[in-house]
Design goal:
By secondary structure, the protein is mostly helical. It is 40% helix and 4% strand. The chain has a domain of 86 residues. The longest helix is centred in the middle third of the chain and has 18 residues.
Protein backbone atom coordinates (compact mmCIF):
# COMPACT_ATOMS: atom_id res chain seq x y z
CA UNK A 1 0.00 0.00 0.00
CA UNK A 2 1.36 3.42 -0.95
CA UNK A 3 1.39 6.44 1.28
CA UNK A 4 -0.07 9.81 0.59
CA UNK A 5 -2.84 10.90 -1.71
CA UNK A 6 -3.40 9.25 -5.06
CA UNK A 7 -1.75 11.21 -7.89
CA UNK A 8 -3.98 13.16 -10.22
CA UNK A 9 -4.74 11.42 -13.49
CA UNK A 10 -3.11 14.09 -15.63
CA UNK A 11 -0.51 15.37 -13.20
CA UNK A 12 1.74 18.16 -14.44
CA UNK A 13 5.37 18.29 -13.41
CA UNK A 14 5.98 21.55 -11.67
CA UNK A 15 9.74 21.19 -11.45
CA UNK A 16 10.39 21.21 -15.18
CA UNK A 17 13.33 23.46 -15.90
CA UNK A 18 12.60 26.37 -18.21
CA UNK A 19 15.89 25.95 -20.11
CA UNK A 20 15.71 22.17 -20.57
CA UNK A 21 16.58 21.00 -24.08
CA UNK A 22 14.96 18.20 -26.07
CA UNK A 23 17.32 17.22 -28.89
CA UNK A 24 16.62 15.04 -31.89
CA UNK A 25 18.42 11.71 -31.52
CA UNK A 26 19.33 11.65 -35.20
CA UNK A 27 22.77 12.76 -36.31
CA UNK A 28 23.15 16.15 -37.97
CA UNK A 29 25.07 16.98 -41.13
CA UNK A 30 27.79 18.76 -39.17
CA UNK A 31 30.88 20.46 -40.52
CA UNK A 32 33.97 19.14 -42.20
CA UNK A 33 37.23 19.10 -40.27
CA UNK A 34 39.14 22.27 -41.19
CA UNK A 35 42.32 21.21 -43.01
CA UNK A 36 44.25 24.11 -41.46
CA UNK A 37 44.17 22.44 -38.04
CA UNK A 38 46.81 19.90 -39.11
CA UNK A 39 45.19 16.91 -37.42
CA UNK A 40 47.39 13.81 -37.79
CA UNK A 41 45.69 11.01 -35.83
CA UNK A 42 42.70 8.98 -36.91
CA UNK A 43 41.37 9.15 -33.35
CA UNK A 44 41.20 12.95 -33.49
CA UNK A 45 39.49 12.84 -36.91
CA UNK A 46 36.96 10.37 -35.48
CA UNK A 47 36.48 12.67 -32.46
CA UNK A 48 35.71 15.61 -34.78
CA UNK A 49 33.26 13.57 -36.86
CA UNK A 50 31.50 12.27 -33.75
CA UNK A 51 30.99 15.73 -32.26
CA UNK A 52 30.34 17.55 -35.55
CA UNK A 53 27.44 15.19 -36.34
CA UNK A 54 26.13 14.87 -32.77
CA UNK A 55 22.62 16.05 -31.85
CA UNK A 56 24.18 18.70 -29.60
CA UNK A 57 25.94 20.39 -32.53
CA UNK A 58 22.63 21.32 -34.16
CA UNK A 59 22.31 24.16 -31.64
CA UNK A 60 25.94 25.31 -31.59
CA UNK A 61 27.05 28.89 -32.19
CA UNK A 62 30.38 29.83 -33.81
CA UNK A 63 32.04 29.98 -30.40
CA UNK A 64 31.11 26.35 -29.77
CA UNK A 65 32.65 25.31 -33.09
CA UNK A 66 35.81 27.26 -32.19
CA UNK A 67 35.92 25.38 -28.89
CA UNK A 68 35.62 22.08 -30.78
CA UNK A 69 38.59 23.09 -32.95
CA UNK A 70 40.71 23.74 -29.84
CA UNK A 71 39.57 20.49 -28.25
CA UNK A 72 40.29 18.40 -31.35
CA UNK A 73 43.87 19.75 -31.28
CA UNK A 74 44.13 18.53 -27.67
CA UNK A 75 42.69 15.16 -28.68
CA UNK A 76 45.23 14.93 -31.50
CA UNK A 77 48.06 15.55 -29.03
CA UNK A 78 46.51 12.96 -26.69
CA UNK A 79 46.51 10.32 -29.44
CA UNK A 80 50.13 11.20 -30.18
CA UNK A 81 51.08 10.27 -26.63
CA UNK A 82 50.47 13.30 -24.38
CA UNK A 83 48.14 11.51 -21.95
CA UNK A 84 48.28 14.41 -19.45
CA UNK A 85 45.60 16.07 -21.59
CA UNK A 86 42.93 13.46 -20.75
CA UNK A 87 41.49 15.45 -17.83
CA UNK A 88 41.26 18.66 -19.82
CA UNK A 89 39.54 16.88 -22.70
CA UNK A 90 37.06 15.27 -20.30
CA UNK A 91 36.17 18.64 -18.76
CA UNK A 92 35.61 20.20 -22.16
CA UNK A 93 33.38 17.45 -23.56
CA UNK A 94 31.36 17.34 -20.32
CA UNK A 95 30.23 20.89 -21.08
CA UNK A 96 28.73 19.63 -24.35
CA UNK A 97 26.91 16.70 -22.73
CA UNK A 98 29.22 13.80 -23.59
CA UNK A 99 27.76 11.23 -21.19
CA UNK A 100 24.31 10.45 -19.89
CA UNK A 101 25.25 12.00 -16.56
CA UNK A 102 26.52 15.17 -18.27
CA UNK A 103 23.30 15.50 -20.28
CA UNK A 104 21.20 15.04 -17.13
CA UNK A 105 23.18 17.78 -15.36
CA UNK A 106 22.68 20.06 -18.37
CA UNK A 107 18.96 19.16 -18.50
CA UNK A 108 19.46 17.88 -22.00
CA UNK A 109 17.57 14.88 -23.32
CA UNK A 110 17.41 13.01 -26.61
CA UNK A 111 14.24 11.88 -28.35
CA UNK A 112 13.20 8.27 -28.04
CA UNK A 113 15.29 6.14 -30.43
CA UNK A 114 12.39 3.79 -31.29
CA UNK A 115 11.96 5.49 -34.67
CA UNK A 116 15.62 4.92 -35.50
CA UNK A 117 15.17 1.15 -35.74
CA UNK A 118 13.07 1.66 -38.84
CA UNK A 119 15.48 4.15 -40.44
CA UNK A 120 16.85 2.87 -43.75
CA UNK A 121 20.15 4.77 -43.46
CA UNK A 122 22.26 3.11 -40.80
CA UNK A 123 25.65 4.72 -40.18
CA UNK A 124 28.65 2.78 -41.40
CA UNK A 125 30.93 1.37 -38.70
CA UNK A 126 34.27 3.17 -38.38
CA UNK A 127 37.18 1.77 -40.34
CA UNK A 128 39.38 -0.32 -38.09
CA UNK A 129 42.40 -0.13 -40.39
CA UNK A 130 43.26 3.40 -39.30
CA UNK A 131 42.66 2.53 -35.66
CA UNK A 132 44.79 -0.63 -35.82
CA UNK A 133 47.66 1.20 -37.50
CA UNK A 134 47.49 4.01 -34.97
CA UNK A 135 47.41 1.61 -32.02
CA UNK A 136 50.35 -0.36 -33.48
CA UNK A 137 52.31 2.87 -33.89
CA UNK A 138 51.54 4.00 -30.32
CA UNK A 139 52.54 0.65 -28.81
CA UNK A 140 55.81 0.49 -30.72
CA UNK A 141 57.02 4.01 -29.92
Amino acid sequence: MTRGPKPKENAVRRNKHEHAQQLSASATEGRALPPGLGIKSAGARRFWKTWATSPQSSTWAETDWAELEITVKLVDAFYQGDVKLAGEIRQRVAKWGATTEDRARLRMSLEDPEDQDQAPDAPEPPSTNDLDEELFRLLND
